[in-house]
Amino acid sequence: MKSLIKHVDDGGRLDSQADVPQMIRQQLYAEQHERSQRRYKKSTGTAGGLPPITINNMLPSATRSSPDTRSDLTTTQSTLQKSYHLDFELPGFRDVALNEYSEWHESRVFNATLKADFVKARDIALANALDLELIHEENDPSFFGEQGVKRGTAKRFVGDIGVWAKKDESEKADSMLVNS
After folding, report:
1. φ, ψ of residue 105 in degrees (nearest 5)
2. Structural domain span for residue 117
3. Which residues of 146-168 are buried (b: 16+ CB within 10 A; e: fewer)?
4. What is the mean pLDDT of the chain?
């Protein structure tokens, strides 16, 4: 830029871009390139010149055998399970909710054998004191399959709890609006 000013001071004319001497034009391009390189380096550098911090989000290895590690793993697993099963709320009696859930499934199939299979899944859950939250938390259709429930029925019975709970919540909210 200083070269361009000196060129004008020495009597050079600058009526258009074509009047800029080739040597000065190359200097301007070089300066612009340096500025853009500095900006790029500054934007990709670390904040405040500090080294980057590496964060590893990994559960402790199951091969460690210290009691502290096992309790940490258990705590982490229970925290994950709690956050997993709290996606919805099941108010009221747990056994009543289980019956209503089974009836909902029965209402969604025409075949009497499939209806009976949902009743069987409900009866197995009641016999094992499993409510919907526990079934959803464990997420284990094979438990019902091992006791004679058909594979598809078991997968639906275990996997649709969140869908049913959210549907039930929205129906209750709708009925409150209608009744008010």
Report:
1. -65, -45
2. 94-179
3. eeebbeebbebbbebbeebbeeb
4. 78
